[in-house]
Structures are given as C-alpha cells and as structure tokens.
Sequence to fold (353 residues):
Amino acid sequence: MIFFLTILFCIGLSGNLWAIICVLWTWLNGRLPARGVFRYMSVYIFLLSISDVFVLIMMALGTAYISTQSWNYSLTTCKIFWAADYVSKLMSNAILASISVERCLAVFKPVQVSGFKNQIIRVFIVVVIQLFFMAALCVPVVYYAEIVEMEVWPEKSDSEHRHHGQKEIVEMCRSDMPDDVFPYYVILLVVFGCLVPTVTTWCSYVFLVVRLGHKSGANVFVQAYRSRVAVFLFLAVTIHFICTAPMWYSMLAIVAPDWLWAPSGELIQILILLPYVNCGVNWILHALMNRELRKASSALLCTRISQGGSYAVMSLTPSPVHWNSPANRHIKSSSSLKSLLNEKKKHAVELSI
Fold:
C-alpha cells in the first residue's frame, strides 16, 4: 500500500506541476486563447491542477502517518491536515461544476461580459465564494480535530509481551464528532459537497446539448463547442464522479447502516484511496484540454478571418500589423485589406502549432 501511494504521489505531483507550467507558459508566451470562454476555461484548468496538487500533498502527509502508525506533528498541523484534505476534495467538485455552468452560460448568453479582465474578476469571485463555503463546511472537522493518545500492541509483539501487557502509546490525529452531530454533518457534507455539484454539472450539460441542438450546424461558435474540449471535460467529470461517489456512499453507509449496505473495513480503505487516484491521473486530461483549447481557439479565429469579419481582424493579439501605425494608414483598397487578412490568418495558424 505504501509503495502504491508513493508511486501515485510522484506521478500525480509531477504531472499536475507539468500541467500548471504548460498553462503558465501559454499565458506568458502570448498564446492565450482569444475567445473569452476558452480563456476562463484555461483558468479553471489551472485551478483544478492546483487543487489536485493540494490533495496529493495531503496524501503524502497521510502516507507518512500510515507508515509510522503515529502522528509526529503538532496539533496545528493536525487541524491543517483535516481542513486541507476536505477543502481540496470539495473544491474539485465545485470547480468542475463551475466549468459546466460557465460553458452553459456562454451558449445561452443571459448576461454579456466583455473583456478578459472582467472575466478573470468573475472567476476570482466565484472561486473565493466557493472557498469560503467549503471552509465553512469544514469548520466542524477542524474544531473536533485533536491528537489522541492510544495504547496499541507492538507490531512484532510476541505472546510473552502480550501476556505481561506491554503496550506502546502512540499519538493519533483524529476528528471524532459527537454521535448526535456526526450523522447530520455527513448528510450536509454529502448534499452540498457531492449531490449539488454533481446535479449542477449534469444538468448544465443536458441544457447545453439541447441548446446546441437548436443552433445552426454551420455556426462557428457551435462548431467550436463541438470540439474535443467538451469530450475531455466530459471524461474528467465522469472519471471524477466514478472515483468520488463510492467515498461519499461509504460515508452515508456509516451513518445509515439500516438503509444502506455498509462496506467492510478493507473496502472502505480502498474507496478512500479512489479520490487520490483521480487526482493522480487528472493531469493527463487537464493537459489534453489545455492543448485542445489552443487548437479550438486558433481554428475559431481562422474561420472568422476567412469570413472577412472585422471582429476577427481586431481580436488577434499579439498582431504584427497595427491599424493606427503611420505605415498602414494608406490601407483603403479591398486588395490591401485582403492581404492584411491573409497575413493575420497566417499568424493565427502559426500560434496553433
């Protein structure tokens, strides 16, 4: 078990850091997707990778806890461990739900928000609200987290040691809530941490598919949404649900054994590991989504340029040609405009390579 967790940590941490570096490299090198929806989706992918990194760090701390069979850190570290573990897991659900809602809103367009700065502010506000709400859900866990001294038999104790009652005293980091509080807290956690984000995600995708079905198939915006970005995002949501749903079910089975089948202790340990496995391999989908974002955005720009729209001409950044420069003020004829469009189209194709 320790070997498996170590390998998972190394692969997951290196992969998620690589995905984060790829997104940052895309931003810093001026290859930011030109379409607004693709821009803030890249921000959400960046946040998802950071959330997975925090989950893996907590897994490493928990692995050391399991290997030593004792908590060798302070009480503050114990509380931080429980808080970070819960918040990072809940944030993955919340961010995936936010991505699906943003994609749905981009198609329905109930409110027009222009400018990349305004979109980043909106994403920042959404993430801050989610963090505040998730932190509020984790307050009981942090409050009841404490270091408990327990007497255990030595791992290699023989019958003589057991006969004389020679036990070891170890410190454990636990969060034991009162019996009259724990069931209600688990139900609250499952509802707002799992059911609400999951239902929101799937409903958003249903509405998105229905809406796209009423749009023209020749619409450039619709074609962009039918790209492989949606496929990878759908896979990420599905895999995340498969890996996290058993963990939430096991929590409900503990508080409702009369209505739900309670898994064995060994099976519960496996179910608890599934979210860590998800975070360890999610970076593959994150990296693929980031690549498809660049391709879809470049294809969208090239298509708009071929249609001769002024929006496409003005939206290309960075541009090797400036409209207001003294050297280009003489551009009046259609032939000059056509050559300018071809030059910008060539520049957009180079960005997508």
Summary: The CA atoms of residues 137 and 188 lie 8 Å apart. The first strand starts at residue 145 and ends at 152.
